[in-house]
Design a protein that fits this description.
The protein is an alpha/beta fold. It has helices at residues 10-17, 30-34, 47-57, 80-87, 100-108, 160-177, 182-206, 223-228, 247-260, 274-283, 305-320; strands spanning 40-44, 61-65, 91-94, 113-116, 214-217, 232-235, 264-267, 286-289. Strand 5 (214-217), helix 8 and strand 6 (232-235) form a beta-alpha-beta unit. Helix 3 crosses helix 6, helix 6 (160-177) packs antiparallel against helix 7 (182-206) and helix 7 (182-206) packs parallel to helix 11. The longest helix has 25 residues, at 182-206.
Length: 323
């Protein structure tokens, strides 16, 4: 594999990537909480799942999300009201291994249709690769900040191909659970998959010829994306957003940047850019946003998954020197 991970401490990178816990979202309204909307009531665990449910469900589905916009999904603790809403839903769409409290609630819930996105595509371990790199140091085993149950990287939605596979599985599940509207679910799924296929083509062609293939991030979320398009992700050592990386780590990144032609340190929209700017400043690099799309807020570079992914593509093209 060409995805390299760098000295990531599980607890520390969680602090780096924490977006701040706001008020836990309950279902969006009382009818949703009681599961009596008159539609196919779907509870989604966090934004990438909600996006699929809304696009595929269309007019026939009422979708609520357990994770509020701007909330770090991995730290979600479900409220009693949310558990009640989940129990009365027609279906739940989640990604097992990403949110432990969701996994527990789903396991204990009587909801008939339980759709685990992790079973609809293939997952890989991205937190434990070991190998040399151009800067002359050895990669070390790194703990992923929010691995799945078996140490697998859960960020499948950032790879348009895997996300399309999940979409197809969700579509089949909706058709089976709500057969009266199966034809529309099939049509909506096909339309979404077509858009994801186009996104994949744009990424593949847009990143095919670049000056560099290496990018640095504060959040080790882009392993699948890097693999898909022949890139290498280097994640900063896990540090609190308010602290600065060690001098040794900065020098390591500086050597890597010089050797691999790295120009940019990426950070997330909702996370402090202090660490990224510290590394970038000492290494003579610039900073920019690469969004893991775990939620959409006013600060997002786009109003939905497709728009933010295209913003990510532009950011990568700029950073890598697309030709």
């Amino acid at each position: 594999m060409n995805v390299r991970r760098r000295l990531i401490s599980g607890s520390a990178i969680a602090a780096v990537t924490a977006l701040g816990l706001g008020t836990l979202s309950a279902c969006s309204d009382s009818s949703a909480a009681s599961g009596d909307t008159g539609k196919f009531d779907v509870v989604a665990s966090f934004y990438p799942m909600a996006y699929l449910a809304e696009r595929i469900g269309g007019d026939h589905a009422h979708v609520t999300t357990l994770t509020s916009p701007g909330q770090e999904p991995h730290d979600l603790e479900i409220s009693p009201r949310q558990i009640g809403g989940l129990e009365r839903a027609d279906a739940v769409l989640y990604l097992k291994g990403l949110q432990p409290s969701v996994d527990k609630a789903v396991d204990q819930s009587p909801v008939k249709t339980k759709i685990d996105a992790a079973t609809l595509t293939t997952l890989e371990e991205h937190g434990t690769e070991v190998g040399g790199h151009a800067a002359g140091h050895e990669d070390e085993h790194a703990d992923h900040d929010h691995e799945g149950e078996n140490g697998e990287d859960p960020h499948i939605w950032l790879d348009p191909v895997r996300y399309a596979e999940v979409a197809q599985g969700v579509g089949r599940a909706f058709e089976k659970a709500d057969p009266d509207h199966a034809a529309d679910y099939k049509k909506n799924t096909a339309a979404l998959v077509k858009q994801l296929d186009k996104l994949n083509t744009d990424f593949r062609e847009g990143l095919a010829h670049t000056r560099s293939k290496v990018f640095i991030t504060t959040h080790a979320a882009f392993g699948y994306l890097a693999e898909r398009y022949g890139l290498t992700e280097e994640a900063i050592s896990g540090l609190d957003p308010e602290s600065e990386p060690s001098g040794a780590r900065v020098r390591d990144l500086q050597k890597l940047a010089e050797a691999d032609g790295v120009s940019t340190v990426f950070y997330e929209t909702l996370v402090s850019d202090k660490t990224a700017k510290t590394v970038a400043g000492d290494a003579g690099l610039t900073t920019d946003v690469l969004d893991p799309i775990e939620g959409i807020t006013k600060k997002s570079r786009g109003q939905d998954y497709l728009a933010v992914q295209r913003a990510n593509l532009k950011a990568l093209q700029s950073a890598l020197g697309s030709k």
